[in-house]
Amino acid sequence: MSLEFSHIAHTYGAKEGTRALTDVSFVAPGGEITCLLGASGCGKSTLLNLAAGLLPVQAGRIALGGATLAEPGACPPPEVRPVGLVFQDAALFPHMTVAKNIAFGLPRDRHSEIEMWLARVGLGGLGERYPHQLSGGQQQRAALARSMAPEPQVLLMDEPFASVDVVLRRSLRRECRLLLREGGTTTILVTHDPDEALDIADRIAVMEGGRIVQFGTPQELYNEPKVPSVGAMFGGAQIVRARFRDGAYECAFGRWPSECALGEAGREGEAVDLLVQARALRLELDRDGVPVRDVHPLGARSRVLFRHSGGAELTAEVPQAAGDHIRPGARYRITPDPQSLRAFALG
User: For residue 193, which phi and psi values (nearest 5 degrees)?
Assistant: First the structure.
C-alpha cells in the first residue's frame, strides 16, 4: 500500500516556535523503498515520527492505501498503527534472547516462524544469544527481523545503519534492500548519506529546511537536478558562483562559454550557480591561470585542488599519469568540457 503525505506542517514549541516542516506532500509507492534524505535539522525524522504516531499531526493528512492514517485531532498511537519501526541503535530488549525479541510482536501461534526469520536475516542458529553477544551488524539484522516478522504494511527506518562500520554498512543495506523488496514492504528510510540513498532507495525525497526540494528516482535526481544542492549531492558536482555576461559565464576560475551549459544560458548580468563535475575540467598550463593548492592520488585518478586568490576553491580529477606531473603552486587555465555545466539562475 502507498503511504501519502498531504500538506504536512509541524512546529515545535509554542505558536512562535521552531517550524520543522512546511507544506510537505509526496507519495511513497507501495512495495518500494523511499528515502528521506537531508542534513540534520531538515525535518526528515519529524516526518517519520508523524507517520509512526510518535508525534501528533498538526496540519495536513497522512493516508495509507487511500484511508486516513492520521490527521489533526485523529492521531492513533504507534501500537495500533500497521507500521514497524527500526531505529539507529537497534533498541533490542537486552534481557531477552534474539528469538524472544523477534517473538515479542508475534501472536503465540506464529512463534514457529522465528527460525525462518532468523535464517532470512542471516542469524540462523543464533536465536538463543542475547543482544550484547551480537555484533552491531547482527543486532541491526535482529531488529529488522523483529520489525518485519509481524508483516507490517509499512516499515519506518530511522538511520538504521549509522552505528555500523562502513564496510559492513554497505553489505548490510544491500541485503536489507533485497529482503524488503522480496517481501513487498512499503518502506520509508531516513538517512543523511546520499550514497546510502542511492544504494538502497527506489525513490528519494531530498529535504532542506523543512521542505522537499526534489522527489524522484535516483536516476532522475542524478541526471536532472532541480536545484544546485541536489546536483552536488548526487552527481558529485561542485557549485561555482558565476555571472552571465556577453555570452559567457564569468567566475573566479575563468570565463567559461555558455555553450558548455545545459538549458538556458541566462540573462545578461544575471548571477547563476553552475554545477560542474570534477572529471569534466580540462587543465592547461598557463602562467596567468589559477594556482594548484594540492594534488592527491586516488588510485587510477588524482584529485587536484585549485584555490583562487579570493578564496574560492575548485577540484579537478585527472588520470593518474597526468596527476603525477602536476605540482602545488603551478598555474593552470581551467575550462569545462562541452555540455558539462548545468546553470541555475539565482533570480
Answer: -105, 110
